[in-house]
Write a structure and sequence with these properties.
By secondary structure, the protein is an alpha/beta fold. It folds into two domains: 4-46 and 145-316, Rossmann fold, CATH 3.40.50; 49-139, Rossmann fold. 46% of the residues lie in helices and 14% in strands. It contains 14 helices and ten strands. It has helices at residues 4-14, 27-30, 49-56, 61-66, 75-86, 101-109, 121-135, 146-162, 177-187, 205-212, 235-244, 253-267, 273-283, 308-316; strands at residues 23-25, 34-38, 68-71, 91-95, 113-116, 138-139, 168-172, 194-200, 247-251, 297-301. The strands form two sheets. A six-stranded mixed β-sheet has the order 1-2-10-7-8-9, sandwiched between helices. The chain is globular, with a radius of gyration of 18 Å. The N and C termini lie far apart (44 Å). The mean pLDDT is 96.
């Protein structure tokens, strides 16, 4: 278990680096009690700074001096690069060859060396492990580490403080770090609040793992939500989600793009597809298809890093 004390310590550690992001009430637009937790407004444009900084800050001076490395579809890479720069550590980020240019350029802008490798999370993890061993770098994994999960769990504490009557928190799932952290924070504080994970239909590794009763590796993933494409959940994240989350639902790419457009047109907020998956689950009714949410639903907008040309296409589709 990631303890409440772990998550509270992470909150103290990241204070002044990660923002306490706003909670925007969009109930009138949605026709139901509905709020958006705007993690797209974090430094680097995504929640990932919480976990990345929490981990890099706890490394030894020697580890930071030698440098850090990660494998990432983009947002975690940018966050680790920013955390490393703030703490004086050289950074290397391994990204897929299909990573959006806005995320590649973002990591480089924070001083990271970017290596492009393969198209799956397994490809980039293998390259990162090779580079780490050859260069003596410390791995800062994107989701499957206690310090990463504790950092992401600070989102859950903030939501409960900002919305004391929250009934459900809807969380996008890639590798599961955010969902695991939020579930750990919420269920140890307000066990009555439901935690609902959301995956794209084309990358539902957590849902497949829960159905199988153990972590499974998908042969491939395909979705417009590039930040939610790991072929396998983490061992720690699977364990926490399987024990603490109330449900995991899936949304298709059309529903995700509809949610990107709705969030911009109705809330005037920019969300990337990965961040809008939670909104899609609420708007489509899938978040409470099995059990009605009796009270405010909070969708975590996990990120807003999106290329302007693609964003324009989605808005005008």
């Amino acid at each position: 278990m990631i303890s409440l004390s772990d998550i509270r310590a992470a909150r103290e550690r990241i204070a002044g680096v990660a923002s306490v992001t706003p909670l925007i009430d969009v109930s009138p637009q949605a026709g139901r009690p509905f709020l958006l937790k705007c993690e797209n407004m974090q430094p680097c444009g995504a929640f990932k700074i919480r976990g990345a900084y929490n981990m890099v800050a706890q490394l030894t001076a020697d580890q930071r001096q030698r440098g850090v490395i990660t494998y990432s579809s983009g947002n975690h890479g940018q966050a680790m690069a920013l955390a490393a720069r703030a703490l004086g550590a050289p950074a290397v980020v391994v990204m897929p060859t299909t990573a959006p240019r806005v995320k590649i350029e973002g990591a480089r802008s924070y001083g990271a060396e970017v290596i492009l490798e393969g198209t799956t999370s397994s490809d980039r993890r293998a390259r990162a492990e090779t580079e780490a061993a050859a260069r003596g770098l410390t791995m800062v994994p994107p989701f499957d580490h206690e310090w990463i999960i504790a950092g992401q769990g600070t989102v859950g504490l903030e939501i409960l403080e900002q919305c004391p009557d929250a009934a459900a928190i809807v969380v996008p799932i890639g590798g599961g770090g955010l969902a695991a952290g939020v579930a750990a924070a919420v269920k140890q504080t307000r066990p009555d609040v439901r935690v609902i994970g959301v995956e794209p239909v084309g990358a539902a590794a957590m849902r497949a793992s829960l159905d199988a009763g153990h972590p499974v590796t998908l042969p491939k993933t395909a979705t417009v939500a590039d930040g939610l494409m790991p072929v396998r959940p983490g061992d720690l994240t699977y364990d926490l989600v399987s024990r603490l989350a109330d449900d995991i639902v899936t949304v298709d790419d059309d529903e995700i793009i509809d949610a990107v457009r709705w969030t911009f047109n109705r809330a005037k907020v920019v969300a990337e597809p990965s961040g809008a998956a939670s909104v899609a689950a609420v708007l489509s009714g899938k978040a409470d298809a099995r059990q009605r949410i009796d009270g405010p639903a909070i969708a975590i907008l996990s990120g807003g890093n999106v290329a302007t040309d693609l964003f324009g296409q989605w808005l005008n589709r």
